[in-house]
Write a structure and sequence with these properties.
Blueprint: E1 9-11, E2 14-16, E3 23-27, E4 34-39, H1 43-61, H2 65-81, H3 83-94, H4 98-118, E5 125-126, E6 135-142, E7 146-150, H5 157-169, E8 173-176, H6 182-194, E9 202-204, H7 209-218, E10 224-228, H8 231-242, E11 247-251, E12 256-260, H9 266-278, E13 288-294, H10 295-310, H11 331-345, E14 349-352, E15 367-370, E16 387-393, H12 396-403, E17 411-415, H13 419-428, E18 433-436, E19 455-456, H14 461-466, E20 469-476
Parallel strand pairs: 7-8, 7-10, 8-9, 10-11, 12-13, 12-17, 13-16, 15-16, 17-18
Antiparallel strand pairs: 1-2, 3-4, 5-6, 6-20, 11-19, 14-15
Bound molecules: nicotinamide-adenine-dinucleotide (NAD).
Family: Belongs to the aldehyde dehydrogenase family.
InterPro entries: Ald_DH/histidinol_DH, Ald_DH_C, Ald_DH_N, Aldehyde_DH_dom, Aldehyde_DH_Superfamily
Protein name: NAD-dependent succinate-semialdehyde dehydrogenase
Length: about 475
């Protein structure tokens, strides 16, 4: 199978190949087949994209928010009309079941609409002055041309959160989506261009990530960086950003604790969290991942959770009935195997899965490990895959200590019917997002982001618009 999205760069309103002809293959992670080749931008192409974003910014910032919203709404409609085709491409390049690809695209379209509307409400404020006759205005303005680098796990949403936030605020953008999932990003860019986005407002480039980012970040043109990816790369980009003092939004990794108390409906929670854990093959930054279960509920939970894991149908994302697709690439199989070997050597029990499925594609069985000791690597490093460690906990204090033990602070989940326990968790859990008795942490209108090593700054909600704004203070009086 191959996709039907021609892969091109978008620079200054023109879709085209890289000027030096370099490219790399895009692989279907379910079949190992080459889907297409994604062009690499040369240094000259990157410079052209930066220059285009400088010009694009001047045009877009001067475009009334009402007009900007109309372009974004037209693009949302075009994406809706083309949803089936884009979702199929998304599944081919990333592996997730096509039903999930459709839902992801629907969410991305919502995000685009939300920021189109919210851009109209980029209010500043008037501050009463100390001197008579003086006017004092606090103004929110687009920060300038921006840069974005994003991971492959949500090829539509990761891209759209940055594109929509930037466009809604009046910024231009040079974005480097993942080379592993380029077609979805290109489809989004085509819809925006067709909808009438002025040239240079959105530029899409691909290449060798470290080379592209170091070149773009060294330029004084962009004023902002928004990154979604690992902690390690986030720290590296922030160091690069220091030289030109660009402000950053860092959406980094997590290792979300799931605290299950004996006073909840344990079987229901096991089913629900297993579905959450294995969604997208566990390749979700807010995936429920470290299962901390109160002693009195431990046996019931692990039994129901392992049963649910065994029932997850793994297969090609375009096949009927598939619940979980492949991992993004073969390299991730070895990482999962490493987690399982290490944990079982440390005394953990293998309750489900634990191995690769077949010898084609990057399929790995939904895996559950029980009685996992704190020292096991999987209790410390983000698995970013379908491996779920479960640990037994004695008390609320133990849960809190374990939940907060790692430097990450992205999402956290807890299930309890006790109000006092819930109150202690609301105050005590170190996470940018905490969901009690649900797994919902992401909507277009609410802030999404981490604390501590999971990064800072938010995407989603008014905070996601502010991320692309700067604040100025203007006074005005008569002499
Ligand atoms: P990664 O950091 O290696 O790569 C992420 C993206 O950045 C990829 O597109 C990659 O090509 C690019 N990249 C890599 N090195 C780069 C560099 N030097 N300069 C510019 N771009 C570079 O991470 P990964 O393992 O591919 O992705 C998974 C990670 O992303 C996980 O840690 C996950 O938690 C995190 N993530 C976070 C969020 C969030 O919103 N907090 C969302 C999705 C994924």
């Amino acid at each position: 199978m191959s996709y039907d999205e021609p892969l091109e760069l978008l620079i200054g309103g023109e879709f085209r190949a890289g000027s030096e002809g370099a490219s790399e293959p895009v692989i279907d992670p379910a079949t190992d087949e080459v889907l297409a080749h994604v062009p690499h931008a040369s240094t000259a192409d990157l410079d052209a994209a930066l220059e285009a974003s400088r010009r694009g910014f001047e045009v877009w910032r001067a475009t009334p928010a009402l007009e900007r919203q109309k372009v974004m709404e037209r693009a949302a409609r075009l994406l809706e009309e083309d949803k089936e085709r884009i979702a199929r491409n998304l599944t081919l390049e990333m592996g997730k079941p096509v039903g999930e690809a459709r839902l992801e695209l629907g969410f991305a379209i919502d995000v685009l609409r939300w920021y189109g509307e919210e851009g109209k409400r980029a209010y500043g404020r008037t501050v009463p002055a100390r001197a008579p006759g003086m006017r004092q205005e606090v103004r929110k303005e687009p920060v300038g041309p921006a840069l974005a680098f994003v991971a492959w796990n949500f090829p539509a949403v990761n891209v759209m959160r940055k594109v929509a936030g930037a466009l809604g605020a009046g910024c231009s953008l040079v974005i480097k989506p993942s080379e592993e999932t380029p077609a979805t990003a290109v489809a989004i860019a085509r819809a925006l261009q067709e909808a009438g986005l002025p040239e240079g407002v959105l530029n899409v480039v691909f290449g060798v990530p470290a080379e592209v980012s170091s070149h773009l970040i060294a330029s004084p043109i962009p004023k902002k960086i928004s990154f979604t990816g690992s902690v390690e790369v986030g720290k590296h980009l922030q160091r690069l950003a220091a030289d030109t003092l660009k402000r950053c939004t860092m959406e980094l990794g997590g290792h979300a604790p799931v605290m299950v108390f004996a006073d909840t409906d344990v079987e229901k929670v096991a089913k629900m969290t297993a579905a959450g854990k294995f969604r997208n093959g566990g390749q979700v930054c807010v995936s429920p991942t470290r299962f901390l279960v109160e002693d009195a509920a431990y046996d019931r939970f692990t039994q129901a959770f392992a049963e649910a894991a065994k029932g997850v149908q793994v297969g090609h994302g375009l096949e009927d009935g598939t619940v979980m697709g492949p991992l993004i690439g073969r390299r991730r199989i070895e990482v999962m195997e490493g987690f399982v070997e290490d944990a079982t050597a440390a005394g953990a029990q293998l309750l489900a899965g634990g191995e690769r499925i077949g010898n084609q594609g990057a399929f790995f069985a939904p895996t559950v490990l029980g009685e996992v000791p704190r020292e096991a690597r999987v209790m410390n490093e983000e698995p970013f895959g379908p491996v779920a460690p479960v640990a037994r906990m004695a008390s609320l204090d133990d849960m809190l200590e374990e939940a907060n033990r790692l430097p990450f602070g992205l999402a956290a989940y807890a299930f309890t019917s006790d109000r006092k326990t819930a109150g202690a968790l609301r105050e005590g859990v170190e996470a940018g997002m905490l969901a009690l008795n649900s797994l919902l942490v992401s909507t277009p209108e609410t802030p999404f982001g981490g604390i501590n090593d999971s990064g800072y700054g938010s995407e989603g909600g008014i905070e996601g618009l502010e991320a692309f704004q700067r604040t100025r203070f203007l006074t005005d009086t008569d002499l």
